[in-house]
Protein: Copper(I)-binding protein
Organism: Halomonas ventosae
Amino acid sequence: MRIAALPLVLFSLFSATALAQSLTVEEARVRAVPPGSPTTAAFMALTNPGETDLALVGGSSPLAGSLELHNHVMVDGVMQMRQVETIPVPAGETVRLAPGGWHLMLFELARIPVEGESVTLTLTLDNGETLTVEAPVERVQPMEMQGDGEH
């Protein structure tokens, strides 16, 4: 009886894995900052290869006391940084987190990240999944090219 149930159990495990939604993370990096800076930012490309829309809803890092999702918006002709609740990643699309657009802010730094080291970031998705990313610390220009502005 147990042997007969084994194929069903294995099929269930593989089916659940195949149906799971996830993002892929590429080009992750944390901005190098001068000594004494209480904050830094993280940037990356989030790709949703699935058929269901997903969203980044939070995150954490051992480097920071808190991590927030942010975007820049134009208000009365002035670009302003704003905290957001989610960063949507539509099915089949890539969303770039970059200077001047979507990004992660790391506050209350435990220490100043050193260029060349790696920072662990844990990203939380709206489906309950968490992704752990190692992001190298790099010098990042204030306003890198954002492409055509499409997400």
User: Anything to note?
Assistant: Residues 2-19 form the longest helix (18 residues). Strands lie at 24-31, 39-47, 54-60, 64-75, 78-84, 87-89, 94-97, 103-109, 118-125, 130-138. Helices lie at 2-19. Residues 21-138 form a domain with the Immunoglobulin-like fold (CATH 2.60.40.1890).
